[in-house]
Design goal:
Layout: H1 3-11, H2 14-35, H3 43-51, H4 56-83, H5 89-105, H6 110-125, H7 132-158, H8 161-170
Helix pairs in contact: 2-3, 2-7, 2-8, 3-7, 4-5, 4-6, 4-7, 5-6, 6-7
């Protein structure tokens, strides 16, 4: 086997290409989050990695649900924290349950509920120096940066024929 054949086999591998585009998207989200001076910038690449696991068409739909879930989780955490300023296991669990009911009432997906629950949890369980609504706004921006980076890179990489094969195999 020649050197060129080995290189071609490596670069034609779907895992290599998907890993490459995911790394590009993560880099874009990290650079963007750092440019915006986001305190908990790590949520941007986490969101990017999650979104990069979907096809472009799925990414748009799922990302919209995830953003809505993030907003609802943040808003609900602010209201919940006002009603229950001292969070404990029982009232936190009640909050997660109520968040699920809210997502159901608004006919959202489980994807929206999951990210809403994550946002709700981060705001209420992590010790922050800022008030809940500010933390919620920060989480929304961090997640939005990650989702946008993933969508941009997904759109660019979708033009690459091999990426279509990768997306099919991931489904």
């Amino acid at each position: 086997m020649t050197f060129n054949t080995i290189i071609r086999k490596i670069t034609d591998n779907m895992w290599v290409k998907h890993s490459f585009w995911t790394a590009v998207a993560v880099m874009l989200s990290l650079v963007s989050a750092n440019m915006l001076s986001l305190e908990e910038y790590y949520w941007a690449p986490i969101s990017t990695i999650i979104v990069m696991q979907s096809s472009l068409g799925q990414s748009w739909d799922v990302s919209k649900q995830r953003l809505i879930g993030t907003v609802i989780g943040a808003l609900f955490a602010g209201v919940f924290n006002f009603v229950f300023p001292d969070v404990n296991t029982l009232n936190f669990s009640l909050g997660i349950f109520l968040l699920g009911i809210i997502c159901y009432v608004f006919k959202l997906t489980l994807s929206a509920y999951r990210l809403g629950g994550v946002t709700f949890s981060i705001i209420l369980l992590m010790h922050h120096s800022e008030i809940a609504w500010r933390i919620g706004l920060d989480r929304f921006i961090e997640v939005a940066v990650g989702i946008c980076a993933a969508l941009i890179v997904s759109a660019v990489s979708a033009q690459c024929p091999v990426m279509k094969e990768i997306r099919k195999s991931i489904k």
